[in-house]
Write a structure and sequence with these properties.
By secondary structure, the chain is an alpha/beta fold. It is built from 14 helices and 15 strands. Bound molecules: zinc ion. This is 2,3-butanediol dehydrogenase.
């Protein structure tokens, strides 16, 4: 990446695994929406850090949703990981040395390593990761599924952060990748009534198949429909997964004392109806991603409890296809894509 909106695939030296590190051959990788927004120069979190890095020269940017095969391990790799293992990795690695990490608050680490952002990521044939972030992929899970596991882990974190209680009514605003995954997790979790609003007909259909009780067209009166479905009370939990502009709707649809989970990546100074949130005692949470949940997400996919394949509509081949994958993921509607465009680098079944 040489500047905002300016990225190309170029030759770089192969990475070498130092102490505690692993080199992974990337079998499949998909861009995240956040990466597409950052590449385009949108003023979301991490934009200023990226701008500062770009001022010093080209940045090897992006690639944290991937699956691959361990090529090499440096000294001190954790037990249970071997060369040849099929893996993915947790994208954020707390430093392990600062005051927050030592106090067992890794989410408060001020300088975590973030794959593809603080260093080179998996938009490459080989990626170097801290070996402790590797997660083994169970048999029967494809590289495409494993590359799509991070958003599912995020949805699981979201439901945990909201503490959805048995029978809670849940509204999911947005029927994109996160909306559909949240619908599936809600259906398999504690939620009672599951409501989803979305703009695209194809994605509303996916949300319906994922088990939503009430699927609404986002251009309609979502607030009225939610109030009607909840006896005029509002939803116990609202997942805001549609991007800027819908937080206001979330605040109107959540019940008094309810919870809004901020799933979308928002601009730095996105507005919020603070007085209403305060007056109604609404809790706003933003789940972090992280370890442990990846293993569970992979098991859910292996068992067929959650379907991530329904969101994979575009697959490209070879590392040269990365810019095209970014373009498709950035503008899914135009390309008729349901989720991120995946790039396949090699077939790990044939390699085995
Ligand atoms: Zn730390």
């Amino acid at each position: 990446m040489r500047g905002f909106g300016d990225a190309a695939v170029e030759e770089v030296p192969d990475p070498v695994a130092g102490p505690g590190e692993a080199v992974v051959d990337v079998a499949c990788v998909q861009p995240s929406v956040t990466e597409c927004m950052l590449l385009a120069g949108e003023p979301i979190a991490m934009h200023t850090v990226l701008a500062a890095r770009l001022a010093e020269g080209p940045v090897r940017f992006g690639g944290h949703e991937f699956a691959g095969v361990v090529r090499a391990l440096g000294p001190g790799a954790p037990d249970g990981i071997r060369v040849g293992d099929r893996v993915t990795a947790v994208e954020t690695a707390p430093c392990g040395r600062c005051a927050a990490c030592r106090a067992s608050h890794p989410h408060a680490c001020p300088s975590p390593a973030v794959l593809g952002f603080t260093g080179p990521g998996a938009f490459a044939e080989q990626v170097l990761v801290p070996a402790r972030t590797l997660v083994r992929v169970p048999d029967g899970v494809t590289a495409a599924q494993a590359a799509a596991i991070q958003p599912l882990a995020g949805a699981l974190h979201g439901h945990a952060a909201a503490a959805v209680h048995p029978g809670d009514s849940v509204l999911i605003i947005g029927a994109g990748v996160m909306g559909v995954l949240h619908t599936q997790v809600a259906r398999h979790g504690n939620a009672g009534l599951v409501m989803v609003s979305g703009r695209s007909e194809a994605k509303r259909e996916l949300a319906g198949r994922a088990g939503a009780d009430l699927v609404m067209d986002a251009v309609g009166d979502v607030e009225a429909a939610v109030l009607a479905a909840t006896g005029g009370v509002g939803a116990d939990v609202v997942f805001e997964a549609a991007g800027a502009g819908t937080f206001e709707l979330a605040a109107r649809c959540v019940r008094r004392g309810g919870t809004i989970v901020m799933v979308s990546v928002l601009p730095d100074h996105a507005g919020a109806p603070l007085a209403r949130l305060r007056e109604r005692g609404i809790t706003v949470v933003h789940p972090r991603s992280g370890g442990g949940v990846f293993e569970h997400a992979l098991r859910l996919v292996a068992r067929g409890d959650v379907d991530v394949d329904c969101l994979i509509s575009h697959r490209l081949a070879g590392v040269e296809a990365l810019p095209e994958a970014l373009a498709i993921t950035r503008d899914k509607q135009r390309y008729g894509a349901l989720g991120p465009a995946q790039v396949d680098l090699f077939d790990w079944d044939r390699a085995a």
